[in-house]
Amino acid sequence: MEIIIRGGKSSLQRQLDSFYKEVTRSDFSIRRVTKGAFSTARSNLKPEAFVELLDNVNQTFYTEAPYRVWKEFRLLGADGSRLMLPNHPTVVEEFGTHSFDPNGDSPRSLALVSMLYAVLNLTTHDAQIAPYSASERDLLNAHLPRAGKEDLLLLDRGYPSILLLFRLYSRGLDFCVRMKEDWWLQVKEFNESGEKERIVKFTLPRKDKVTFRQECPDFLEVEIACRLVCVTLENGEKEILCTSLVDMEAFPYEDFPELYHLRWNEISS
To answer: Would you say 161 and 184 are in contact if contact means Cβ atoms under 8 Å apart?
Structure first.
C-alpha cells in the first residue's frame, strides 16, 4: 500500500527493492518481490480499501490533532478536472471513448474527477470519478454525504443552481458560492442595484420538484432565504456571492472578501 501511495520517479522494481531493503534493514538490496508479482497483487486490491484508508486518516486527524477553522467552520472546497485514461479494454468498457481530432480517428477514454477538500487543512474528504459525460454538479452531489453541519462549502460559478441550494439547506449545510452576474433574475437585479448585500428568497422551480420529491419531500414548498454579497476586487471586478450566512451581525460584510478566496487557501492582505 505504501508503494502505491508514495509512487516516485524511479522504476517500480527499484522502488520495490528499495522498500524491502528499508523494512528489513538490510545492507544489500535483495530482490524479494518482482514487479510482475506486485502488479498482479495490486490488481486484486479493492478500490474501497483506499476509501476506508482515507476515512481513517481523516477521523484520526480531526479527533486527535489541532486543525484550522474559520469562525468554527471547517471550510470545504470542491473542484473537478478532466483526465485522459490509459488505453485498456476494461477502461473502455467502463468509460467509453471520445474523439476530438478533426478526423475522429483517435478515440480516447476520458473521465471527470472531483475532490472535496478542506482548504485550510489541506486534507481530502472525498474523491469521485465518472465518465466524461458527467458534470461537476453530479460529482458534487456524490460528495455531500462527506460534509457535515460543522462545514461550510465554498463553490465557484460552475456549481450554483436553485436545486443545489435546496439540497444544501435540506442537509443543514452552510455555503458561500460565487454567482454568474446575469444568470438569475434576483442576482441580476442585485448586481445592477449597487447594493453591497441583500437578503433574497428562493422557491423550488416546478421542474426540480419531480427530482427533489424523493430526496426531501418536506422541502418542496419551502421558501429558503439566502444572502447576496457584492465584493469589489482589487482590479475593480465585481464578485457576487450567495451564502446561507444570513446573520449580518455574526457574519458582517467585511468577512466575505477574505472568505471566498480562502477557497484557494489565499488570505487577503
So the answer is: no
